[in-house]
Design a protein that fits this description.
Layout lengths: L3 E4 L10 H10 L5 H4 L7 H7 L5 H12 L5 H8 L9 H12 L3 E6 L3 H7 L17 E4 H4 L6 H11 L6 E5 L2 H9 L3 E4 L7 H9 L1
Parallel strand pairs: 1-2, 1-4, 2-3, 4-5
Helix pairs in contact: 1-5, 3-4
């Protein structure tokens, strides 16, 4: 019986625009952005940021070296927000609230970074002027936990911290590698198409 639901962020709760991110990073001077950015799992200094191994200021300095000039915080933030493909679908956010009202525990489990999360935790996140965390019980982010999906450690951290059982937890993600890692731990999983509307699929799963 499913009692808990954990959601990926980009591609699941908001529409992910990889091409938009590449273009945004190119605009601030990262000519080879398409080789440095990834759709699912960042590499190099981008991975160091999302795994919490470097600070936002250290990342900004390293990115500035790649771009050949000093970058402001707002420039870097704007580049990261290139991943955000338009306004967040508030219907998905309302479904999160409905699930909580019905007694399900709901969580975010995401590979992300302080720049994106600063947007997510601001009034700019939703058309209702509310932050992401107001729609969920708790957010587990890779840079805060210090582990990135598909490493099993981040799933185990969530299970321990929330006090939930893997067999009672449904995890939604658009990455096959992340889904496989969760399934190996006994977590129930649902692979969703990137940017798809998963609401009815979740309801069908909960009725099983």
């Amino acid at each position: 019986m499913i009692k808990n639901l954990a959601f990926d962020f980009g591609g699941v709760l908001f529409d992910l625009d990889y091409e938009g991110a590449v273009e945004a990073f190119k605009q601030i001077g990262l000519a080879d952005a398409s080789n440095r950015l990834d759709r699912f799992h960042q590499r190099g200094v981008f991975e160091e940021l999302e795994s919490g191994r470097i600070t936002p200021d250290a990342f900004r300095a390293e990115l500035g070296k790649m771009c050949g000039r000093a970058l402001t915080h707002d420039e870097v933030l704007g580049a990261w927000l290139g991943y955000v493909g338009g306004p967040v679908d508030v219907r998905k956010l309302h479904r999160l609230e409905e699930l909580r009202a019905r007694g399900y525990r709901t969580f975010l489990l995401s590979n992300t970074n302080p720049f994106v999360q600063s947007w997510a935790e601001s009034s700019r996140f939703s058309s209702e002027g509310r932050p992401l965390s107001s729609y969920l019980e708790k957010c587990y982010t890779s840079y805060e936990v210090g582990i990135m999906k598909p490493d099993p450690g981040i799933f185990q951290f969530m299970l321990r911290d929330a006090g939930i059982l893997p067999g009672e937890t449904l995890f939604l993600d658009d990455s096959p590698a992340n889904i496989a890692a969760a399934a190996d731990l006994g977590i129930q999983t649902m692979l969703v198409e990137k940017n798809a509307d998963w609401r009815e699929a979740v309801e069908q799963r909960l009725r099983q």
